[in-house]
Fold this protein.
Amino acid sequence: MLPLVHTVPRPSLPPEGLSPAHLLATWIAETAGGRDDLKPRLLRLSDGHLVPLDVARWSGPVDRADESLLSRATGTVLDVGCGPGRLTAALHRRGVDVMGLELVDELPVLAREAGAPLVVGDVFGEVPRAGAWDSVLLADGNVGIGGDAAMLLRRTAELVT
């Protein structure tokens, strides 16, 4: 019997001239809700570097690791950098007082589909109910927002009660 061979498709590269936000929103829409488009995605930065993006993970269903995180998000929850909003949507469906916060208007497709509260804005700017949140989610690599993890953590500390 011959061994099974898996062919990995070459990652798709974004066409030049399209904004990264538009590309990411398009890719998220393609994979939203765990659809079958699980192709690796790469984003070419202005300096030429390629960054791998786990778009299917960000827009897929909540898994066991996510459940562990969500079980510890108590009280009112602010999902900073919610992206497509899969965690915001999951908490909203459970009746949790949650709000997604995303800088790029095109991205939170899953939060919008679930009818979850959402604000398009910058975590370093005005945030509704600042100082009154019980929990803040920083998931899927969002501790890198702003390029300075310590600065982001100080800001999130200002947002909680």
Remarks:
- The longest strand covers residues 98-102.
- Confidence is low (pLDDT under 50) at residues 1-14.
- The CA atoms of residues 53 and 150 lie 23 Å apart.
- The chain has six helices and six strands.
